[in-house]
Amino acid sequence: MRAGLEDAGLQGELWRGEAAPHYAGHRDRLRDRARRGLSALPDYEILELHLFRSIPRGDVKPLAKALIARFGSLAAVLAASPAELKTVSGVGDQVALDLSLIQETAVRLGRETVTKRTMISSWTALLAYVRLALANEPREQFRVLFLDKKNQLILDEVMNRGTIDHAPVYPREIARRALEVSAAALILVHNHPSGDPTPSNADIEMTRQVVDAARTLGLTVHDHLVVGRDGVASFKALGLM
User: Fold this and answer.
1) Superfamily of segment(s) 119-234
2) Model's pTM, two decimal places?
């Protein structure tokens, strides 16, 4: 109850002679600073502001710092799965859901910037989108962007999720799905959780197999993008396709 009344600005009347906890008034002070400019706040305080809504009472600064320490960055916290988030003491179902919701909202906003636009002429927006969606994924994920005849996005679909260094890819399944959604072209995308986007020999061989399977059906594979925290590698730019 005490911590719940804290946000009403009544701290001075609460404690009835008892020493106020060290965090008394912190939420109001942080909100005041946020109103003056969010860009000046460090990552853990941005995370605190989100946690205020999930945990309406008490001091959430230690939890915000613990989450960033566990995952390495604010972006990595938001990209973590609910199960991974709940390995941090103090994170329950509600906090895990709320943090995952932030990431999903950001990804959908990024997707809107590339939907109904020609992929080939919106390359900067595309790279920003795939980095947002995949750069901090803790497990390897293979996605396909299915494009129409105008090279506009029809569908961005996760074809497979794997381990920290491998996601099985089935070229015939990709080709079959392309026919189902009436795609004319594809852009392959997967991530390297290690952070280094450099294509591996296995990546190169798998891409060749997908390109061959697509060609038999008259489909074009424009590129294969490998996403890591260190950047995005393009097979086409590297001369690998």
Assistant:
1) Cytidine Deaminase, domain 2 (3.40.140.10)
2) 0.69
